[in-house]
Amino acid sequence: MKNYTELPVGEYAKTNNVDILRAEVSSDIVDLLSSNTFNLVIAVSYGKLIPAEFITRCKYGGINVHPSLLPRYSGSSPLQYALLNDDLETGVTVQTLHPTKFDHGSIIAQSSAVPILDSDNYSSLASKLGDIGGEILAKVIEDGSFVDIKPLTNSYTRCFAPKIDKQERQALWSHYSARQLKRRYDALGPLFTFMDVNVKRKGKRITEKQRIILNEISELKDTNELDLALNLDELKECGDFSLVKDGLCIKAKEGYVLAKRVQMQTKAEDTPEAFIGTCRKSNGSTRQHFLPK
């Protein structure tokens, strides 16, 4: 039997003696109709298509809250793509539930454009848009605009925001600028890269490509903030890195990023100082370099 972490709406339902009905697959949803009558479906972050049979048998059909200014970024990952593309704004849409497609319903209500700040990341955007979405949804229900729907139109171009592949977390030093890497971290969390490490296998020393995870990544906007002892000319190739006062300075396609936490393959996350120490033990005095791609 599955264990559930209850959402706030679930806690509210329990406190107020409102039945909670759970459905794992489409057939479970349709089966709910055998002993219940529903007026309206409200889908929020459900991630599955509500069966057309269920929607059509609800008096007012269904509505959905989506964290983008549709039709821009339809799909499962709108917040991530807004950050990956370094958009300046985003928003929230309340739409009807389409019976066969995700995010192809009629737009009932839409927020004004919400600025994406340089300090924003996935968590802060989700929190910000969650609050706005709750307010808009409440208004739609209170004023009954889901009953006699008057679809809204806008000038946004439709584009798709599919599920993010795990490989998108790789820091491709010769492909991404420092700004793009910072936004990739904001959207997806810790990034990974690779480096050649000397290891001992069966009594022999060999060079092995190992995964390195980088955390607390920021864009280095002012190189004057770096230690005077670091000559940036020494970081000649994309992926070259050096230890500085505030972390690990890494050369990108354009500019430099700082990483304040580093984790080597099979080891715990540690400070850049400890990482450099481990590198020197393994690789001696060889150049400090992450593989560019």
TrEMBL record:
InterPro entries per record: Formyl_transf_N (IPR002376), Formyl_transf_N_sf (IPR036477), Met-tRNA-FMT_N (IPR041711)
Gene Ontology CC annotation, any one: mitochondrion
UniProt-listed Gene3D superfamilies: 3.40.50.12230
Top-level EC class: transferase
Molecular function GO labels: methionyl-tRNA formyltransferase activity
Lineage: superkingdom: Eukaryota
Pfam families xref list: Formyl_trans_N
Domain Formyl transferase N-terminal: 22-141
Protein name: methionyl-tRNA formyltransferase
